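This part of the workshop introduces the protein records we will be handling. A record pairs a protein's sequence with a compact description of its fold. Comparing a sequence with its tokens is the quickest way to learn the format. The record below serves as our worked example for the rest of this section:
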Amino acid sequence: MALVESEFVRPVYLGECVLPYRILPPRHAVLPLQGTEILDGQHREIDRYPDLARWWRQAEELWLKHRSSDRLTLAGRLNFQNDLTGQLPGTALRVVYGKSGMHVSAALLEAPNGIVEHSLYWATVTSRSEGLYLLAILNSPALTELVRPLLPYGKDERHVDKYVWELPIPTYDNTNPQHLRLAEIGQSEMNRIAHSSWTSARTSSPFANWSGNTYSTPQTPTNLMSLCESCWIDRARL
């Protein structure tokens, strides 16, 4: 069994780690990340960490031996389209949701050191309230009904993907009573689910790899907000 310096062992969040309002325990992976850089086998800094250097160079040898194309190095494959370095440095709060499926499962990720893999979309939020506001909207069953007419027919019609952002979801405003109310609903649902005895079943949805910080549209009608709020209020009465 190989050993590496502990700072290079990072939590990695897969699609299966995200339930509505809840993050399940992550996997862990050795990732040669320092600051905003990847320390590949030729990097001038990697020999400062002898265990990582030994482990990573062995991994690179295996990659060169078994890769199907010589187009990418191991570091290049891990950082394809800046999937890794685009998450550095980490942020304290992110909203994450699964890429595939007809329903959205969104949760608040509070792990600055965590890495989100490609089956999830993620975005930073400016406050916990903004994150909870988004969770209340994204996890609402009303969202599925509203986004379905936007999905293309064909092989991807079952996947919400980024189509949720074609809906008129306004940027969070902490002076807007309706936004504050949705954030309260998001917190209430998070608390409720935190005390649920879920094991591994993925409940109402999946949401994935969004990496933008804005979601506003001008002149946003209020019907989306009202539908989502009413949906949660009706559910609470059941």
